[in-house]
Amino acid sequence: MTEYLVPRAEGDVQYVQLLTPEGYRVEHPDYAFDGGEDEAGTIRGFYRDMVLTRRIDTESTALQRHGELGIWAQLLGQEAAQIGSGRALRPQDYVFPTYREHGVAYCRGLDPLRLLGLFRGVDQGAWDPHVNNFANYTIVIGAQTLHATGYAMGVQRDGAVGTGDADRDTAVVAYFGDGASSQGDVNESFIFAASYNAPVVFFCQNNQWAISEPIERQSRIPLYQRARGFGFPGVRVDGNDVLAVHAVTQAALQYAREGNGPTLVEAYTYRMGAHTTTDDPTRYRLTDEVEYWKLRDPIARVKVYLTRNGLADHDFFEDVEREAEELGARLRDGCRALPDPSPLSIFDQVYAEQTPELEAQRDEFAAYLDSFEGAH
Amino acid sequence: MTEYLVPRAEGDVQYVQLLTPEGYRVEHPDYAFDGGEDEAGTIRGFYRDMVLTRRIDTESTALQRHGELGIWAQLLGQEAAQIGSGRALRPQDYVFPTYREHGVAYCRGLDPLRLLGLFRGVDQGAWDPHVNNFANYTIVIGAQTLHATGYAMGVQRDGAVGTGDADRDTAVVAYFGDGASSQGDVNESFIFAASYNAPVVFFCQNNQWAISEPIERQSRIPLYQRARGFGFPGVRVDGNDVLAVHAVTQAALQYAREGNGPTLVEAYTYRMGAHTTTDDPTRYRLTDEVEYWKLRDPIARVKVYLTRNGLADHDFFEDVEREAEELGARLRDGCRALPDPSPLSIFDQVYAEQTPELEAQRDEFAAYLDSFEGAH
Amino acid sequence: MTKVTLAKALNMGLRKAMETDPKVLIMGEDVGKLGGVFRITDGLQKDFGEDRVIDSPLAESGILGTAVGLAMRGFRPVCEIQFDGFVYPAYDQIVSQVAKLHFRTQGAIKMPMVIRIPFGGGIGAVEHHSESPEAQFAHTPGLKVVSCSNPVDGYWMIQQAIAHDDPVVFLEPKRQYHADKADLDEEATPPPLFSSKVLRTGSDATLLGYGPMVKTLMKAAEAAAGEGRSLEVIDLRTLSPLDMGPVFESVRKTGRAVVAHEAHTNLGMGAEIAARITEQCFYSLQAPVLRVGGFDTPYPPARIEEEYLPDLDRVLDAVDRTMGF
Amino acid sequence: MTKVTLAKALNMGLRKAMETDPKVLIMGEDVGKLGGVFRITDGLQKDFGEDRVIDSPLAESGILGTAVGLAMRGFRPVCEIQFDGFVYPAYDQIVSQVAKLHFRTQGAIKMPMVIRIPFGGGIGAVEHHSESPEAQFAHTPGLKVVSCSNPVDGYWMIQQAIAHDDPVVFLEPKRQYHADKADLDEEATPPPLFSSKVLRTGSDATLLGYGPMVKTLMKAAEAAAGEGRSLEVIDLRTLSPLDMGPVFESVRKTGRAVVAHEAHTNLGMGAEIAARITEQCFYSLQAPVLRVGGFDTPYPPARIEEEYLPDLDRVLDAVDRTMGF
Ligand SMILES: Cc1ncc(C[n+]2csc(CCOP(=O)(O)OP(=O)(O)O)c2C)c(N)n1
Ligand SMILES: Cc1ncc(C[n+]2csc(CCOP(=O)(O)OP(=O)(O)O)c2C)c(N)n1
Ligand SMILES: [Mg+2]
Ligand SMILES: [Mg+2]
């Protein structure tokens, strides 16, 4: 399939970009980066976020290699897409992730150890979503886009949209992948969101691959254009440019909060690693392509920008590095210390109101387990 | 919901039209009607087809009222959409209908009595689809659009597309409704068709209603534009104009046969009757709307055109009327004569290769039935 | 006391639930102005508005999937599936999301949702309008499944299901919607939702059923009584969890049981009920538990559906057979 | 004779089927270059081309729905569902279309389709990757359902399923893909597809299972033999239709049966098998048929899946209990 030999995103890709791979700021007619009062500080913050997110990723990958995790879904290369969008959220906004939004989870304040619990197999990603307004990871492709849309319909019913109150108006974000765009559920979520004008931002990380399948298998036109078929705006952003992602997401969120309805944001990025730690991408893609994307690294360009413009010094980068080391150590230790669940606990979590028959099954199993205790 | 008070299709609807409701031919920059050598004869044929189709419909509605059918899905008002498209097909083309394409069935040469079998409940629409290249009615909304796409993928694999051989190149048509456009399956069929560039025409009869739900609940932009989101052409045609429907469908079919892939055709029409004979449309729509559409009757405008231009005389119209009467009589008699299935037959049709356990169940039931025979 | 049909009772129960709790929403195809194709939601949109009685796009997965999100936002969605055979496009959302979210989140998320499904045959309909999908939902941990058989139960059970914090698949025997009227006392105290009920006591054998079959079982017991045979009838009411206590008690007394449902016999509820009775009442059983179900074929064309559906004769035939052991 | 794993045997069987019949197609996610996430289709796209080994868009309903159309055009699609838990988006197409088209058309349309599903647990995976959905398909008339338990069966059964004119849900015990190697004689004559098989004869009780449980049952019988207990083991192989002849024969001899599966116990295959055995062997039974299954909870996190899955101890515990009656 030589048609994928030529690295995509070469020249012909039209997207919103505010920081080039070489670290130069550029203008865009429709979008500008809003870094607040202390713009340099904000960008340094993004840098730190991306480095820490990458550390979460590499550390977790290593933990999987050491047998501490059953599997890990890597985000390497997608840091800008996740931090840029995650940092555009307000506290009251609500996120519905896939299984790969570790950077967004981090932005929402979820302890990365909660993510490890899922991949270690001690739980199924059992955090309380209402604590950080960050829903639980969803593995069935696309299902969460409908949940997000429904939640946004709830937001409408609560009158938390279009009031002009910045602390009240709420947007919902549905993350999904390029592959997911083919699922019926995702398209139905577009239909419901359009029909009810729900305050939801569909944030697609087009990382070019759905396991071994290239984006061309899912769509023959740029994905952001899917929205045209449903009557709401779509925009493609350089997903490796944290400033552009932030600007575009912020605009889409605000559009939703104001009651203007859904937007599709396509963050054009690349999955630098394997699909998961069990995947072997050499079977289906060429290193040329990976090499090409290495030059567009989302973190490197921010570092160059900060350095070239004297916005961050050596100490800053060292501090971030140290912080990353600490985070890594905490993850290593914390992961190993995650307690295994008790076998009997599974019976207690099936229903909000336990059933007598399941209670009986539990008791029977408890007695059975006890019989071994006795035997030893 | 006053927003539906104003009859839709007033002025702002852009579509391909070649014959006005008043029966005047008009030009369109992209589409021209091709009536062959004997254009007037062709149009008279369309007229006849539409009248007979309407008769099938009204006769069946009457049969339902008399208790001879369990239910009937009326097509009243959609005759042009169905005859215009049905008459654009070549023998080798293949049709995947919903449950309302009685006019297309008629074009394919399927005996209308076969349709009555389904609605009478003597079978489930059990015609052999390969005889007329007309698949069986599908009741689960949207499911057949994927079947059509798969069939079209098969056509590709058989090399029956893009050869230039007019008797070989094959297009597939998937009929569906405006409501169906919201189903995941329909959107997935767009994705598969686009991805493989399959020779399929998606023919949507937008009759403005999905039972009680207006089209606005399904899409906030004109439906034909849905195709834009998937990267293939979409076109809206006046679904009550048999010449325009024929021209547009013929073009889309030819486009598919030549290997250019899918097209979405939206035939903008109106369901003049109830959703089915069990529906009561007065609960959800205004007579004003129906009155408006009565003026756009698909048959009347052809009659006016033929008459005004001296292309058909009184005898012709009388002949058609007589033919319709005969057809009606045949349906009435034929319907009543449709044999009830034998209860035991249901066991024989579950599998191509009968299973011993089902055979046993059959035998047991046969013995049980026999026990009553004895008792009487 | 008012005389009401099952359809009316459900409508009244829904209205009551909406009045009681402003978080209760109704969602589905044609549930608004039309009041649903069976008119079960008749008048509710008019009185509670379009925000609470939501006509959805024609997409069942979309209905259930957005209901999940609405439930997460604190609402209590009551989703109507238009006909049994159209629940399958939503199957993934139901079994992988609705059923599992409480478990996945260790209780952080509740799914107080009701999935109303008019089910069963006997109305002369075309394909996909007469299915009995209960076993598939009852096999799915995380869901609860109930079925009402009469107007009074309909009125109470729908309210109890809506007030319940777990997702409930609520199966309505569509053939009974307008079949009979019953006296409804809105002041009465209903039995718990997840309980089965002995409707008629007897000593020779136990008849078990739910939803549309209950009426048939009662008639069968009546007919049998005429021939001097005393049959106990139990309306199971809840299919997941099953409330087997009264069943075991009954079978220990009668020694014989026949379980009936419209669903395919193979792997239908009858299989589970037979297995449980046999496990728990082995020494009391005078005969194997016999099953009377729909055949293991797709639902047939309407003209022969009455042959397909278990009826009084087939139930009594099974009773004869069990007595013959 | 070659020593092959189940994964390899299936791959060889698929290849053979594709060589034999040019109408055989393979469809699914990542089945092409990658050869599927389990590599069952490894090398097939390279040798048979993209037209016959089709990487599909990420949409299960789309895969099954287009397969229906391809079957109507005369092809024989073999659809791979990547993991058991991802079959549900295709559930509607499977139960309402694939299963019913032959019936609907009174035989005018055949659906010679195989739906391959790697199923079951024990591989340390995350949610939705360890499901056992067999009962739901076996409950659906129009489908046939089989499961292989070893490489030799895998090689033959996949070919037989593909050659068969009805739709076959083909359940592959993913835990066994690379577990063991077996001698494969490609010249042998396989037993019929829809037949169960006595793997070990015994006299005290009968163990029944399929797919991933068969190995456990054999080990249990082995262990029991060490304690002087003689257990018969039957690999059911076909779940719909069931081939109960050898089972009845066995139970009439032993008087006791234990049926095991990973699927939830409630309404699992065990319920049906227990019910049928009880119906047919009532006077031979010394004890109720006991069931050892997955609990009636969602599949748990990987760290406790071994507790959830029926194992040798739980099987032997059930044998003890059945002997205690
Ligand atoms: C319904 C469903 N089908 C298949 C899978 C298996 N699967 C997991 S991830 C994946 C690819 C997803 O690709 P994409 O949406 O692009 O997201 P990415 O993994 O690239 O972030 C597949 C096929 C699944 N999880 N759910
Ligand atoms: C999956 C599914 N859900 C619901 C139904 C019930 N139903 C039958 S027709 C219909 C409306 C279809 O509207 P549309 O697609 O516009 O076609 P029309 O009937 O107007 O021709 C509905 C909801 C169904 N048949 N299938
Ligand atoms: Mg991707
Ligand atoms: Mg319509």
From TrEMBL, chains A, B:
InterPro entries named among the record's database cross-references: Alpha-ketoacid_DH_E1_comp (IPR050771), DH_E1 (IPR001017), PdhA/BkdA (IPR017596), THDP-binding (IPR029061)
Top-rank lineage group of the source organism: Bacteria
NCBIfam families (alphabetical): PDH_E1_alph_x (TIGR03181)
Entry protein name: Pyruvate dehydrogenase (Acetyl-transferring) E1 component subunit alpha
Cofactor dependency: thiamine diphosphate
Gene3D superfamilies (alphabetical): 3.40.50.970
Molecular function GO terms recorded: magnesium ion binding; oxidoreductase activity, acting on the aldehyde or oxo group of donors, disulfide as acceptor
GO biological process, one term: branched-chain amino acid catabolic process
Domain spans labelled Dehydrogenase E1 component: 48-325
The entry's keywords: Oxidoreductase, Pyruvate, Thiamine pyrophosphate
Organism: Nocardioides marmorisolisilvae
Pfam family, one: E1_dh
